[in-house]
Write a structure and sequence with these properties.
The complex is a heterodimer of chains A (113) and B (113). With 113 residues, chain A is an all-beta fold. Chain A contains no helices and eleven strands. In chain A, the strands form two sheets. In chain A, strands 2, 4, 5, 6, 9, 10 and 11 form a seven-stranded mixed β-sheet that branches. Chain A has a four-stranded antiparallel β-sheet with strand order 1-3-8-7, with no helix packed on it. The radius of gyration of chain A is 13 Å and the shape is globular. With 113 residues, chain B is mainly beta. In chain B, the strands form two sheets. In chain B, strands 2, 4, 5, 9, 10 and 11 form a six-stranded mixed β-sheet that branches. In chain B, strands 1-3-8-7-6 form a five-stranded antiparallel β-sheet, with no helix packed on it. Classes of the chains: A mainly beta (113), B mainly beta (113). Chains A and B meet through strand 4, strand 5 and strand 10 of A and strand 4, strand 5, strand 9 and strand 10 of B.
Chain lengths: 113, 113
């Protein structure tokens, strides 16, 4: 049982490049979400999903796209990377959204130069 | 904006002492959760307390919730060097309509051996 797996662990992008951060969970959780963590800011919600085919915006969605074609996977796409998107990104999954504990991946450290 | 705010931002204590961290939030909640993050790692769930509960224990952890004051506290008794980490509160704010957690900015705890 791997839990929540994020890839890659580290990434450096040039401004304007695009990329996809991968997130997969093997716990059959319906709820998945993406957060970014900046120094002194805690975690801020980017996008979340309550099930396959359903996604919604969080607190800071601009510059990011998501899709949820399967229960297991919830990729986060950066369309045109900007230095302001330099951050650590965490994917989380849970059985019932905010009503139950969330399981987090180990994070992706992204630097945009 | 952050739903939860932790206090203090940083705390340094000696091994064996108790550590108390506080969390204040802004709107009505269904539950409040506490998470721990070791440096460079993902978040790990510690405890969940529901809005109709006032106190909950788990091992050396004691969590209280005061919904009238919109605040919670996390007490770690008999702290150990291994408790050194950042601690975050998280809420499922009822006003946002989002089925995802909103995190505070965290308390950095340093336990000196």
């Amino acid at each position: 049982n791997a839990g929540v797996t994020q890839t890659p662990k580290f990434q450096v992008l040039k401004t304007g490049q695009s990329m996809t951060l991968q997130c997969a969970q093997d716990m059959n959780h319906e709820y998945m979400s993406w957060y970014r963590q900046d120094p002194g800011m805690g975690l801020r919600l980017i996008h979340y999903s309550v099930g396959a085919g359903i996604t919604d915006q969080g607190e800071v969605p601009n510059g990011y796209n998501v899709s949820r074609s399967t229960t297991e996977d919830f990729p986060l796409r950066l369309l045109s990377a900007a230095p302001s998107q330099t951050s650590v990104y965490f994917c989380a999954s849970s059985y019932a959204g905010g009503d139950t504990e969330a399981f987090f991946g180990q994070g992706t450290r992204l630097t945009v130069v | 904006s952050q739903q939860g705010e932790e206090d203090p931002q940083a705390l340094s204590i000696q091994e064996g002492e108790n550590a108390t961290m506080n969390c204040s939030y802004k709107t009505s909640i269904n539950n409040l959760q506490w998470y721990r993050q070791n440096s460079g790692r993902g978040l790990v769930h510690l405890i969940l307390i529901r809005s109709n509960e006032r106190e909950k224990h788990s091992g050396r952890l004691r969590v209280t919730l005061d919904t009238s004051k919109k605040s919670s506290s996390l007490l770690i008794t008999a702290s150990r060097a291994a408790d050194t980490a950042s601690y975050f509160c998280a809420t499922d704010a009822m006003d946002t309509g989002r089925r995802a957690l909103t995190f505070g900015s965290g308390t950095r705890l340093q336990v000196q051996p």
